[in-house]
Protein backbone atom coordinates (compact mmCIF):
# COMPACT_ATOMS: atom_id res chain seq x y z
CA UNK A 1 0.00 0.00 0.00
CA UNK A 2 1.26 3.47 -0.81
CA UNK A 3 0.04 6.92 -0.12
CA UNK A 4 -0.07 9.56 -2.79
CA UNK A 5 2.47 12.34 -2.70
CA UNK A 6 5.90 12.48 -1.06
CA UNK A 7 6.47 11.51 2.54
CA UNK A 8 8.23 14.48 4.04
CA UNK A 9 8.92 14.92 7.72
CA UNK A 10 9.98 18.37 8.76
CA UNK A 11 11.04 16.87 12.07
CA UNK A 12 12.69 13.70 10.76
CA UNK A 13 16.46 13.68 10.76
CA UNK A 14 18.59 12.88 7.73
CA UNK A 15 19.87 9.89 9.70
CA UNK A 16 16.34 8.46 9.88
CA UNK A 17 15.92 9.03 6.16
CA UNK A 18 19.16 7.18 5.51
CA UNK A 19 17.98 4.32 7.70
CA UNK A 20 14.84 4.10 5.61
CA UNK A 21 16.79 4.23 2.36
CA UNK A 22 19.06 1.42 3.50
CA UNK A 23 16.07 -0.68 4.45
CA UNK A 24 14.45 -0.03 1.09
CA UNK A 25 17.49 -1.56 -0.55
CA UNK A 26 17.72 -4.55 1.79
CA UNK A 27 14.18 -5.53 2.66
CA UNK A 28 11.80 -7.45 0.39
CA UNK A 29 8.38 -5.93 0.98
CA UNK A 30 6.35 -7.25 -1.93
CA UNK A 31 3.14 -7.85 -0.04
CA UNK A 32 4.74 -8.58 3.32
CA UNK A 33 6.46 -11.93 3.10
CA UNK A 34 9.82 -13.08 4.26
CA UNK A 35 12.52 -15.35 5.52
CA UNK A 36 13.26 -17.34 8.61
CA UNK A 37 14.74 -16.54 11.98
CA UNK A 38 15.05 -17.68 15.56
CA UNK A 39 13.49 -16.21 18.64
CA UNK A 40 16.09 -15.87 21.39
CA UNK A 41 15.67 -12.83 23.63
CA UNK A 42 17.24 -9.70 22.19
CA UNK A 43 17.97 -6.24 23.55
CA UNK A 44 15.09 -3.88 22.92
CA UNK A 45 12.42 -6.58 22.72
CA UNK A 46 8.92 -5.42 23.56
CA UNK A 47 7.01 -8.27 25.17
CA UNK A 48 3.76 -9.18 26.88
CA UNK A 49 2.44 -12.19 28.73
CA UNK A 50 4.66 -14.78 30.38
CA UNK A 51 8.12 -13.77 31.60
CA UNK A 52 11.36 -14.49 29.80
CA UNK A 53 12.14 -18.19 29.86
CA UNK A 54 8.53 -19.21 29.36
CA UNK A 55 7.73 -22.64 27.92
CA UNK A 56 6.40 -20.97 24.78
CA UNK A 57 7.70 -17.78 23.19
CA UNK A 58 6.02 -16.37 20.12
CA UNK A 59 8.00 -13.75 18.21
CA UNK A 60 6.36 -11.55 15.60
CA UNK A 61 8.36 -9.38 13.22
CA UNK A 62 5.97 -6.71 12.00
CA UNK A 63 5.69 -3.23 10.57
CA UNK A 64 3.14 -0.55 11.35
CA UNK A 65 2.90 0.10 7.59
CA UNK A 66 2.28 -3.54 6.62
CA UNK A 67 -1.33 -4.23 5.67
CA UNK A 68 -1.08 -7.94 6.43
CA UNK A 69 0.29 -7.11 9.88
CA UNK A 70 -2.64 -4.78 10.52
CA UNK A 71 -5.08 -7.45 9.39
CA UNK A 72 -3.55 -9.99 11.79
CA UNK A 73 -3.67 -7.41 14.56
CA UNK A 74 -7.36 -6.81 13.97
CA UNK A 75 -8.50 -10.35 13.25
CA UNK A 76 -6.26 -12.70 15.24
CA UNK A 77 -4.60 -10.74 18.03
CA UNK A 78 -7.70 -10.23 20.25
CA UNK A 79 -8.37 -13.97 20.50
CA UNK A 80 -4.67 -14.86 20.70
CA UNK A 81 -4.13 -12.32 23.45
CA UNK A 82 -7.12 -13.53 25.47
CA UNK A 83 -6.18 -17.21 25.19
CA UNK A 84 -2.41 -17.08 25.61
CA UNK A 85 -1.05 -13.67 26.59
CA UNK A 86 -3.51 -12.52 29.24
CA UNK A 87 -3.30 -15.97 30.84
CA UNK A 88 0.52 -15.90 30.85
CA UNK A 89 0.68 -19.16 28.92
CA UNK A 90 2.84 -17.57 26.24
CA UNK A 91 5.49 -14.87 26.07
CA UNK A 92 4.66 -12.71 23.06
CA UNK A 93 7.53 -10.65 21.63
CA UNK A 94 7.02 -7.90 19.06
CA UNK A 95 10.01 -6.95 16.92
CA UNK A 96 10.07 -3.90 14.70
CA UNK A 97 10.87 -4.41 11.02
CA UNK A 98 9.95 -1.24 9.06
CA UNK A 99 8.50 -1.81 5.59
CA UNK A 100 7.43 0.54 2.81
CA UNK A 101 7.06 3.46 3.15
CA UNK A 102 10.00 3.08 5.52
CA UNK A 103 10.21 6.71 6.72
CA UNK A 104 6.65 6.44 8.03
CA UNK A 105 7.27 3.09 9.71
CA UNK A 106 10.53 4.26 11.29
CA UNK A 107 8.88 7.40 12.65
CA UNK A 108 5.95 5.39 13.99
CA UNK A 109 8.18 2.94 15.83
CA UNK A 110 10.35 5.69 17.30
CA UNK A 111 7.27 7.54 18.51
CA UNK A 112 5.78 4.38 20.06
CA UNK A 113 8.93 3.81 22.08
CA UNK A 114 8.94 7.40 23.26
CA UNK A 115 5.40 6.93 24.54
CA UNK A 116 6.81 4.52 27.11
CA UNK A 117 6.53 0.77 27.83
CA UNK A 118 2.97 1.01 29.14
CA UNK A 119 1.76 2.80 26.00
CA UNK A 120 3.97 1.11 23.42
CA UNK A 121 1.52 -1.58 22.34
CA UNK A 122 -1.56 0.67 22.33
CA UNK A 123 0.32 3.14 20.13
CA UNK A 124 1.43 0.39 17.74
CA UNK A 125 -2.16 -0.83 17.50
CA UNK A 126 -3.44 2.69 16.88
CA UNK A 127 -0.94 3.28 14.08
CA UNK A 128 -1.92 0.02 12.40
CA UNK A 129 -5.61 0.83 12.76
CA UNK A 130 -4.92 4.20 11.11
CA UNK A 131 -3.31 2.69 8.01
CA UNK A 132 -6.20 3.61 5.65
CA UNK A 133 -5.67 7.25 6.57
CA UNK A 134 -1.93 7.09 7.11
CA UNK A 135 -1.20 5.48 3.74
CA UNK A 136 -4.21 6.74 1.85
CA UNK A 137 -3.22 10.31 1.15
CA UNK A 138 -3.35 12.13 4.48
CA UNK A 139 -0.08 13.80 5.54
CA UNK A 140 1.69 10.99 7.48
CA UNK A 141 3.23 13.40 9.98
CA UNK A 142 -0.19 14.81 10.79
CA UNK A 143 -1.61 11.34 11.49
CA UNK A 144 1.36 10.24 13.60
CA UNK A 145 1.38 13.51 15.53
CA UNK A 146 -2.29 13.05 16.37
CA UNK A 147 -1.55 9.57 17.71
CA UNK A 148 1.43 10.91 19.62
CA UNK A 149 -0.72 13.61 21.20
CA UNK A 150 -3.24 10.94 22.21
CA UNK A 151 -0.42 9.07 23.95
CA UNK A 152 0.52 12.17 25.91
CA UNK A 153 3.38 13.42 23.73
CA UNK A 154 3.57 17.06 22.71
CA UNK A 155 4.58 18.15 19.23
CA UNK A 156 8.01 19.05 20.58
CA UNK A 157 8.37 15.60 22.16
CA UNK A 158 7.26 13.94 18.94
CA UNK A 159 9.85 15.94 17.00
CA UNK A 160 12.54 14.93 19.48
CA UNK A 161 11.50 11.27 19.22
CA UNK A 162 11.91 11.01 15.45
CA UNK A 163 15.26 12.80 15.51
CA UNK A 164 16.78 10.93 18.46
CA UNK A 165 20.10 9.68 17.08
CA UNK A 166 20.60 7.09 19.82
CA UNK A 167 17.10 5.67 19.32
CA UNK A 168 17.65 5.49 15.57
CA UNK A 169 20.98 3.76 16.09
CA UNK A 170 19.33 1.22 18.39
CA UNK A 171 16.65 0.57 15.79
CA UNK A 172 19.34 0.06 13.17
CA UNK A 173 20.92 -2.56 15.41
CA UNK A 174 17.63 -4.41 15.87
CA UNK A 175 16.85 -4.35 12.16
CA UNK A 176 20.32 -5.56 11.21
CA UNK A 177 19.96 -8.42 13.69
CA UNK A 178 16.71 -9.42 12.01
CA UNK A 179 18.27 -9.19 8.55
CA UNK A 180 21.26 -11.25 9.70
CA UNK A 181 18.81 -13.85 10.97
CA UNK A 182 17.16 -14.06 7.57
CA UNK A 183 14.02 -11.97 8.06
CA UNK A 184 13.14 -10.25 4.78
CA UNK A 185 9.59 -9.05 5.31
CA UNK A 186 6.53 -8.93 7.49
CA UNK A 187 4.72 -10.45 9.17
CA UNK A 188 6.98 -13.27 10.28
CA UNK A 189 6.09 -15.46 13.26
CA UNK A 190 8.27 -17.87 15.22
CA UNK A 191 7.34 -20.25 18.02
CA UNK A 192 10.33 -21.17 20.16
CA UNK A 193 12.58 -20.20 17.26
CA UNK A 194 10.74 -22.17 14.58
CA UNK A 195 9.12 -20.28 11.72
CA UNK A 196 5.34 -20.58 11.55
CA UNK A 197 3.88 -21.01 8.08
CA UNK A 198 0.27 -20.55 9.20
CA UNK A 199 -0.14 -17.58 11.58
CA UNK A 200 -3.92 -17.95 11.78
CA UNK A 201 -5.38 -18.61 15.21
CA UNK A 202 -5.85 -22.27 14.30
CA UNK A 203 -2.30 -22.58 13.01
CA UNK A 204 -0.75 -20.93 16.04
CA UNK A 205 -2.93 -22.83 18.51
CA UNK A 206 -2.03 -26.19 16.99
CA UNK A 207 1.65 -25.67 17.65
CA UNK A 208 1.34 -23.82 20.94
CA UNK A 209 -1.10 -26.28 22.51
CA UNK A 210 1.11 -29.21 21.55
CA UNK A 211 4.09 -27.64 23.31
CA UNK A 212 2.06 -26.71 26.39
CA UNK A 213 0.65 -30.22 26.62
CA UNK A 214 4.09 -31.85 26.40
CA UNK A 215 5.72 -32.78 29.66
Question: Concise description?
Answer:
The chain has 215 residues and is an alpha+beta fold. It contains ten helices and five strands; from the N terminus they run H-E-E-H-H-E-H-H-H-H-H-H-E-E-H. 50% of the residues lie in helices and 10% in strands.
Report the sheet with the most strands, covering strand number, pairing sense and barrel closure: 5 strands, mixed
Helix content: 40-55%
| Helix and strand element order | HEEHHEHHHHHHEEH
Ends apart, CA distance between termini: 45 Å
Low-confidence stretches: 1-15, 21-37
Quaternary structure type = single chain
Q: What report would you give on this structure?
A:
With 215 residues, this protein is α+β, with helices and mostly antiparallel strands. It has one domain: Glutaredoxin. 50% of the residues lie in helices and 10% in strands. Strand 4 (188-191) and strand 5 (194-195) form a beta hairpin. It starts with 13 loop residues before the first helix and ends with a helix.
